[in-house]
Amino acid sequence: MKRVLLTIGVLFTSQSFAAAPTFCSSPTMAYQSGCTSTCAAVAAAVAAGDVVINNGAGGIPTNSYESCEGKVTKKSISVYKIEMAKATGDISRCTIWEGDDLTIELGGSSTASLASKYPINLTSCTVGVAYNTLLITTDTFEQFAAEAVFPDNSGSKVRTTSTYAAKDIGHSTATLATWRDVEFADSSLYYFTPGSNTSAHKKLGTSASATDLSSSTNVTMEWDLIKSLKAWATDTSTRTGWFCDPDDSVECSQEIAGNSDRYVSMMQPAYVTGFPLTLKEGDDTLDLEYVRYNSERGTNKTKGVKFIWLNDGGILKYAGVETTGDGGSHFVVTNVRSNEGL
Q: Which of 32, 52, 33, 34 is nearest to 42 (CA)?
């Protein structure tokens, strides 16, 4: 019989510890600080005459790239270990759960109770230590499928595709050329950088395309989270062996030596309700809940995947896709107790 490990709750409203996404009131293809433009919202703005796609005024300048959020239909990742730790100084990490039967779904509006045959066990942790963060070991690769309408209001649709759907190898920042293409110069590479943009996006084909994929299906693609990590986590000196945000020493992840398929993420203390937690003698287990935001939040409001578009001499074409955050999620720790009587 399996024990309930995590319960997923889906939130539609903002919480103080993890802000929900803000969607742009005047959506454009051009980047707007502090808000998200979806492809569907831009298409609606085009229909209303507020945006012209093939120009630089809220649209896309000729021979340039811009992006908008699409709709996630699948987004899942396997979890292999959960540790408690301290966010500063000696992190004093201790394993509270480890297993091979836990997958979290990050897309859509579904809710589920996640169960595992491996229980939460606090016996390797230290009494008296004030734990205030969680370390989550997951698969390096996230599986996702997604779609979006063309933001020009043509009625055409883009979907995740099969050509570059599989896993590839190599994440080293020292050898970017081994896995990251500059636009579409090398068809053997799965990821590319559009124009002067330095972040990596997965290709949707060997070149940008205007083909309507309305009659196709959303193909599940493998997204390498380490590639995303190394685009922003460039501080490797604050925490030995970790990649951290230069502006935040807690926003960190760590590769696992000898295992390229797994890595560790450190949760912000503010995203773990019930922490800090100082264990007492006899504390053997606890209840852990994972709460995420719904990736579908209303008409023309979705979060979790971004499509990259090219204005190719006046023709709108899709070029690539990348996964994005859902706008906030958190863990809830409750009911720390003894195993006696269980």
A: 52
